[in-house]
């Protein structure tokens, strides 16, 4: 059997998978400044929390964005998660919170800016191969038009996942993460078809927890210090440990993942803020 010629070898597909983006997401984490807070009377502390609760109720009644507040466990006292339709709207949400009187008694712990992202690995490989078979040059005008059509079709089909409701689950776990870019292991040098295979296997683990955990993935390359943010919402916090532990055994996590700090919290409706933060 003759050796394949250079022209008969399959061409390498474009390395970058297609993605579609949706709502913008801001996480704000704070610790109460105990020196200032303890100097207040109990009545003053309650007044501050009631003012904040009133503002939160008004925010939650708006149709152009969503906000949820969590009493943190461990690394802070208060986590605020905002979903908005634009980056500018996120800035407005942050500005409005800082105008609240309670903000003067809080110290920032962390913050994270990102946008809901769906990575289309399987669709990317399928689309790229089909365009290649048609003889279209990567990134040419016809190629780009076909890719745009795929993105628009996927965005329409996945609109509920791109612009979801903020889950009302009792608990949240948020953490940022990267893919390794070291000399020995580098996610970004792995061919796209191999990455697609690993991501498919990775996703199968998450699907087994679909009834108990709501997972929202956000992209943050160029927006914050890590590459992705992950929010897990559940009424059973033990499931966070089980899901993340199991995922660490699949190849994409075991070989290529690096994790940041984990932040967990308990959901606070406006009426619950005083009880959660004052007792």
How would you describe this structure in keywords?
279 residues, eight-stranded antiparallel barrel, Alpha-Beta Plaits, single chain, alpha+beta
Distance between the termini: 79 Å
Principal-axes geometry comes out as: elongated
Q: Do you know the CATH architecture of the domain at 21-116?
A: 2-Layer Sandwich
* Oligomeric state: single chain
Order of helices and strands: EHHEEHEHHHEHEEHHEEH
Q: What's the rounded overall pLDDT mean?
A: 92
The largest pleated sheet is described as: 8 strands, antiparallel, barrel
Give the strand order, joined by hyphens, for the main sheet: 1-3-2-9-5-7-6-4
If you consult CATH, what is the topology of the domain at 21-116? Alpha-Beta Plaits
Q: Could you name the CATH homologous superfamily of the domain at 21-116?
A: Apc35880, domain 1
Helix content: 25-40%
Poorly predicted spans: 1-9
* CATH level-1 class of the domain at 21-116: Alpha Beta
Helical run tally: 10
Write down how many β-strands occur, each being a DSSP E stretch of 2 or more residues: 9
Strand-residue proportion: 25-35%
Descriptive account of the structure:
This protein has 279 residues and is an alpha+beta fold. It has a domain of 96 residues: Apc35880, domain 1 (Alpha-Beta Plaits). 39% of the residues lie in helices and 28% in strands. It has an eight-stranded antiparallel beta barrel, surrounded by four helices. A hairpin with a 4-residue loop joins strand 2 and strand 3. Helix 4 packs antiparallel against helix 5. The termini are far apart.
